[in-house]
């Protein structure tokens, strides 16, 4: 595996570990680590977006169905 493909995955793991290890009172560092985690996750999705086409459309439909189902279950929950 090339280092360019493994970099976003390693960065996301390390930045999530950093986010979880920073105390809540240090808000600036916690937000900075959380921002780096979200950036790494976004960069890991770039190859899927560049492929586009049917794969991306199918993923969007499946995601919409899953989120819609979860929202419907949450809306019908008694508590």
Record keyword descriptors for this entry:
mainly alpha, 4 helices, 0% strand, flat
Strands, helices and their partners?
Layout: H1 3-21, H2 27-44, H3 46-51, H4 53-76
Structure report:
Helix content is 85%, strand content 0%. It is built from four helices and no strands. α1 packs antiparallel against α2. The radius of gyration is 17 Å and the shape is flat. The termini are far apart. 4% of the residues are buried.
Helix content: over 70%
Radius of gyration of CA atoms, rounded to a whole number: 17 Å
Percent of residues in β-strands: under 5%
Major pleated sheet = none
What is the number of strand segments? Answer: 0
Order of helices and strands: HHHH
Taking the alpha carbons of the first and last residues, their distance comes to 48 Å
Shape: flat
Count of runs of 4 or more consecutive helical residues: 4
Average pLDDT confidence is 85
Output the structural class: mainly alpha
User: Could you list the spans in which at least 5 consecutive residues all have pLDDT below 50?
Assistant: none
Provide a short characterization of the protein structure.
This protein is an all-alpha fold. The chain has four helices and no strands.
């Amino acid at each position: 595996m090339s280092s360019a493909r493994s970099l976003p995955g390693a960065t996301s793991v390390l930045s999530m570990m950093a986010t979880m290890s920073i105390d809540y009172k240090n808000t600036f560092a916690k937000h900075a680590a959380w921002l780096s985690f979200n950036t790494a996750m976004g960069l890991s999705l770039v190859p899927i977006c560049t492929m586009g086409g049917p794969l991306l459309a199918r993923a969007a439909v499946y995601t919409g169905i899953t989120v819609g189902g979860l929202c419907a279950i949450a809306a019908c929950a008694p508590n």
